[in-house]
Amino acid sequence: MPDATQPDINPAQRAKFLAEALPYIRQFSGKRIVIKYGGSAMTDERLKNDFAADVALLGFIGIRPIIVHGGGPQIGELLKRLGKESRFVKGLRVTDEETMDVVEMVLVAKVNKDVVSLINVHGGRAVGISGRDGGLIQARKARPARLAGIDEDLGLVGEVDHIHPELISSLEGGGFIPVIAPVGAGPGQKPYNINADTAAGALSASLEAEKFILLTDVPGVLGPDGSLFSSLPEEEADRLIREEVVSGGMIPKLRCCLNALRGGVPKAHIIDGRTPHALLLELLTDEGIGTEIVRERAPGF
Asked: pLDDT tens digits, residue range 268-295?
């Protein structure tokens, strides 16, 4: 029976949508798309199913999605149940060894497997890994000077030192969709808690992705009057940060996008994961959604 919650779309509109998608399918077929998965899209049941179905579909049509997921609320919930307080400094979770155990337990053993299972329910071939598997994400202790002037020891909070992409290539060669928990391996295989946005941006550059897509709980990058920037050259995005036009959590997201562009990714996108089938709307329609940040070409190109 038809789903009464879905809008009534006539056959001609459906055919138009399919025809509109064709050139994008051709353009992105065989290309890597790194997607940072977080926010409401990870907690709302309908949105979770939409996301998983979209990822499976991308795999079916020859696009190579690579998922990096967060899990902050789930970590906080388990810590609370264990009687341990969550403490943050400028948005980063202070991570002692006990907290790190919980981070790995939640991200690797719970959230990662849930995402993988749901994609597979929709017919995809997803495999869950962490950044420690196969030496994928080599990490180091985060240096305060690199973290917006933080002068406090954050414990086992890490930053990406190097990416070894061989494991990703092997999984893709077998037709699998990698789903990655952002835990890095430091010296002696010491685990480090890495911000998922940062890990996804670094992976997109190292893997020479065609696009880097960040799912958020906002429409995209907004101006002072609340209007949406549909497209931003990287220099303009830099200006918005310098002049504090954007603030709060949007600043690190924009910086991750800029780092991906400077690592060679042609376009980065900040999109609203609260929109049903946000990935398909961004990748396979003319208008897209959210904000795209575009790498500026050198003169003469």
From this structure: 999 999 999 999 999 999 888 999 999 8
Question: Rounded to whole angstroms, how far apart are CA atoms 89 and 39?
Answer: 20
Helix (H) or strand (E) holding 89: strand 88-89
pLDDT tens digits, one per residue of 99-135: 999 999 999 999 999 999 999 999 999 999 999 999 9
CA distance 50 to 276: 6
**Domains of the chain by start residue, with CATH:** 30-294 (3.40.1160.10)
| pTM for this prediction | 0.91
Q: What is the DSSP letter of 189?
A: G
User: Chain centroid to CA 63: how far?
Assistant: 16
Q: How far apart are CA 183 and CA 70, in angstroms?
A: 10
- The count of other CB atoms within 10 Å of the CB of residue 264 is 13
How far apart, in whole angstroms, are the C-alpha atoms of residue 235 and residue 225?
A: 20
